[in-house]
Amino acid sequence: MESSLVRSFASPSVLSTGRKNWRGDDFTKFCFPAQVSQSRERDILRAYNTRSHVTNIKEKLALTRRRNNEWIVNAASGQPLESGPGAYNSGRIWDSVKTAADAFYRFSRPHTVIGTALSIISVSLLAVQKLSDISPLFFTGVLEAVVAALFMNIYIVGLNQISDIDIDKVNKPYLPLASGEYTVGTGVMIVTSFSIMSFWLGWIVGSWPLFWALFISFLLGTAYSINLPMLRWKRSAVVAAMCILAVRAVIVQMAFFLHMQTHVFKRPPVFSRPLIFATAFMSFFSVVIALFKDIPDIDGDKIFGIRSFTVRLGQERVGILDLHNTA
């Protein structure tokens, strides 16, 4: 009897599930499986939350360390401590805008822009016959002429720089093409765009004097600069002076006066005495411009065979001649 009882307890049973020793957790798993699974889930969730909390702490520490490093770099570079990547990018964008504006300012040759604008405004005033002519219509006509002419002016001076890159490296190394700030492709794109805009504006305005002024300026400016057979008239001092005389003295005075007289005020074309006097004065002044403008450029002109008055006569003689003309 005792032996049979011993054998029954020693033999494997359903409760022992094949294990030699009976354990309390085996009994619990067998009798209360739902309770065990819930307890296990709580343990898993507790472990997951612990790991997540540790991970969040590590991420926050890393972010704080990174921000501290940025503040140290900003302080070392002289930037305010509160400046971040956004402020740095804004500063870079602003610097790029200023650099691009400065390059275009030099490319447009501002002294020619100012001279052209003042000439057109002054000759437009010659068409005013009474005080009532100073009206919004007058200012609109002047604005149309000035903007279209300035677009064409940028084409002319830009084409001259494209044709004179090597010369400007000697005479005017600060210009964008000579200094390498602009590529030739960039220069071509700019002059092409401004010539198209100039003709487009002259066409939509509907003023034939304005359109012909732009067209003749385009032809003379191209012939003056572009290096093609029978062209590049700037190589000859006399022909170059004639180009300047034609544009500054004749076209600007006559054509823009007729633009105001016939297109804006709808009056018959009349060449008044003030207009004739202005044309004569600008003819004389254009000769002075033709002489003076090449005095600083004698070195590059000599090297590349530009026979300007300064190269042919010398800087001192041209300077004395200009003083006599302006005295």
Automatic annotation (TrEMBL):
Keywords of this entry: Chloroplast, Membrane, Plastid, Transferase, Transit peptide, Transmembrane, Transmembrane helix
Pfam families: UbiA
Domain of life assignment: Eukaryota
Location relative to the cell: Plastid, Chloroplast membrane
Membrane topology term: Multi-pass membrane protein
Coiled-coil annotated spans: none
Residues spanning the membrane: 113-131, 137-159, 180-203, 209-226, 238-258, 270-292
GO terms under cellular component: chloroplast membrane
MF-aspect GO terms: prenyltransferase activity
Family that this chain belongs to: Belongs to the UbiA prenyltransferase family.
PANTHER family: HOMOGENTISATE PHYTYLTRANSFERASE 1, CHLOROPLASTIC, HOMOGENTISATE SOLANESYLTRANSFERASE, CHLOROPLASTIC
Protein name per its UniProtKB record: Homogentisate phytyltransferase
